[in-house]
């Protein structure tokens, strides 16, 4: 079988095309303290400056051996772009959203007239992709990632978001329409900068929280708009939602994404059976296995996850910053030794 470049291999695997082996990649947060020490780029500064974002992101490739480079490392830049107050992270912890800006339809109207190309952190993330693209060209795929429209709307609206869904609060529809428009345009800007794969991280759009009806109404149509926009640019899309999404995979599959990333709580075999169009990727436990386990335990679990139906075996949620590099390398070694 033909041997492919890392970029070709990832594209073909996500598109269900013939491929020589499994890509060695991570679709969720990749940075660790050991990578920071190895490359000299540290949080929180490496969440802020394009050169440092790129330097730490590529450490996943140069230090760990991943066959892709993923940016960024957190899911707060989008809310920050719209004016939400952000609690700064530390060397070990990610920043978080602590203030909200969209309580009414009138608030949403004030946010609609947004543009890229300024100095906001989302613009600096786009610039980091340009840096990586200039350095790696078409050899190594660059994975762009962003928060999904549902979770971004919740960030902007705050604790009232879920109650608003149930009470038909008039802010709900215009807000999620606006955040979806933002996500589509942000993804397009990342692709123009050099990203060749897109990841939607939508943690609060959880089947566990929403159930069938609300998920079908407030998640599928908006994820599909992003997936369709990426298809128009020939860029595969991966959707990650936290929690036990086993019973909701059949709905996630209707969004048109090429892959569904599942976390450690998911029954991979049932997920693979439920997904008729998307491939299942995941679902190694980032804490008990990847952080606290051993390389041999990781390789053994990789084999089990692959046998259960995951087409790309990788970490099931964001990498814990304290994860040892040798544990991450065990995942890479398994993938590189795999046979499709």
How would you sum up this structure, described in words?
- InterPro entries: Methanogen_methyltrans, Methylcob_mtaseMtbA, Mtase_MtaA_CmuA, UROD/MetE-like_sf, Uroporphyrinogen_deCOase.
- Its cofactor is Zn(2+).
- Pfam families: URO-D.
- Its EC number is 4.1.1.37.
- The chain has a 7-stranded parallel sheet.
- Helix 13 links the parallel strand 7 and strand 8.
- It is α/β, with parallel strands linked by helices and 340 residues long.
- The radius of gyration is 19 Å and the shape is globular.
- The relative contact order is 0.14.
- The chain has a single domain, classed as TIM Barrel (Alpha-Beta Barrel).
- Helix 2 packs across helix 3 and helix 7 packs across helix 9.
- It is built from 15 helices and 9 strands.
Topology, element by element:
Layout: H1 6-14, H2 33-39, H3 50-64, E1 69-71, H4 77-81, E2 86-87, E3 96-97, H5 105-111, H6 121-136, E4 142-147, H7 149-157, H8 161-167, H9 172-193, E5 197-201, H10 207-218, H11 220-231, E6 237-240, H12 249-252, E7 259-262, H13 268-274, E8 279-284, H14 295-308, E9 312-315, H15 325-337
Parallel strand pairs: 1-4, 4-5, 5-6, 6-7, 7-8, 8-9
Antiparallel strand pairs: 2-3
Helix pairs in contact: 2-3, 3-6, 5-9, 6-9, 7-9, 9-11, 14-15
Instruction: State the domain count.
Output: 1
Return residue spans where pLDDT drops below 50 for at least 5 consecutive residues. none
Averaged pLDDT, please?
A: 96
CA-to-CA gap between the ends?
Answer: 10 Å
Assembly category: single chain
- Strands of the biggest beta sheet: in what spatial order? 1-4-5-6-7-8-9
Tally the helices: 15
CATH class: Alpha Beta
The CATH architecture would be Alpha-Beta Barrel
Listing every helix as H and every strand as E from the N terminus to the C terminus, the arrangement reads: HHHEHEEHHEHHHEHHEHEHEHEH
Radius of gyration (Å): 19 Å
Helical amount: 40-55%
- Determine the structural class based on helices, strands and strand pairing: alpha/beta
What is the 3D form?
Answer: globular
Biggest sheet descriptor = 7 strands, parallel
CATH topology: TIM Barrel
Q: How many beta strands in the DSSP annotation? A: 9
EC number: 4.1.1.37
Cofactor: Zn(2+)
Protein name: Uroporphyrinogen decarboxylase
Keywords: Lyase, Metal-binding, Methanogenesis, Methyltransferase, Transferase, Zinc
